Amino acid sequence: MQHVILDLIGTELSPEEHDILQHPLVGGVILFARNYESVPQMTELCRQIRTSRPTPLLIAVDQEGGRVQRFKEGLTRLPSMGEIGQLYQRSPEQGLQLAYSSGQTMATELRAMGIDLSFAPVLDLDKQQNTVIGDRAFGADSTLVSTLGLAVMRGMRAAGMAATGKHFPGHGSVKTDSHTTLPIDSRSFEEIYREDMQPFIAMIAAGIDALMPAHILFPKIDSHPVGFSRYWLQEVLRKQLKFSGIIFSDDLNMAGAEFAGNYAARANAALEAGCDKVLICNNRAGAIHILDHLIHGKIYERN
Fold this sequence. Notes:
Layout: E1 4-7, H1 15-20, E2 26-31, H2 39-50, E3 58-61, E4 63-65, E5 68-69, H3 81-90, H4 92-113, E6 117-118, H5 142-158, E7 164-168, H6 189-194, H7 198-205, E8 210-213, H8 230-240, E9 246-251, H9 263-273, E10 277-280, H10 284-293, E11 294-295, E12 298-299
C-alpha cells in the first residue's frame, strides 16, 4: 500500500527526491510555498513528479485561502473562510456564491497545473479560542459552517477536485496549537457531537471524499489523540457516522503527534487506528525513517 505522503525541498525534483519517490510506500507529495515560483514552474514540477515512476502519485497542497494559500503569484487571491462567513451573515446569497466560486476557482487553478487535491475546506468552529484556526474557519455556528462547507465542496467538485474536511471532530474549542503541543479538550462526547461534529456529519451525508483528524486528546472519550484512536476513527467515524472515504492523518511532524513515539511508530499507530494515508512534512529524516521502518503499516525491525 502507498501510505506515505511527503514533501519536497525546492522548485524542482532533485535526484535524491526522484529516488525517494520510487519507494513502494510513497503514495504522494504535499507541496508548500517554497515549491512555488510561477504557474509554468509548478506545472513543470508536477510533470516531473508524475513522470518519476509509472505508479500514479497524489499531488496535494493546502490552498484554503486567506493566510493559508501556499501558491499566490499569478493565481487568484482567495478569501479566508472567515471572510466568506462574514459575508454570508450580511448576505446569505452572496456568501453562498463566494463559497462556491472560491472552491471552484481554487480547484480549477490547481488542476490546471497538475495538482490533484487541496486539503480543504476547514470545518472547525471558530470559538475565538484557537489562533491557529481563527479566520481559517467560516465562523462559530455549526449550521453556518455546514452550509458554507457544502458550497465550497460543490465548487471544488464542479472543477473536478475532491474535498477534504478538517480537522475532525473539531479543532476550534482548544486554545493550544497542535503544531507545538498536544491540545487537550475535556468536554463530553455529547457536547462535541452537538456542536463541533455537526459540520462533519453534514459533509459525510453529502458524500465528502476525505477527512483529516485532529491531533487532539479528548480524555473523557478515549486515551489516544484522535488521529491515533481506533475509537474515533473506526467506531465513531466509520461505524457511527458511516464515513466511507479516505482518512488522511494530519502532519506527523507536529508536536501533537509526539504522543505516539518516533516517526515510524507515529505512522504505524495512525495506520493501525484507521488512517489510510499519513503525512510527514518538513522533516526529510523523519520521512526516511518511516520509509525504512514501516512495511505495509507494520514496524519493520532490522536485525
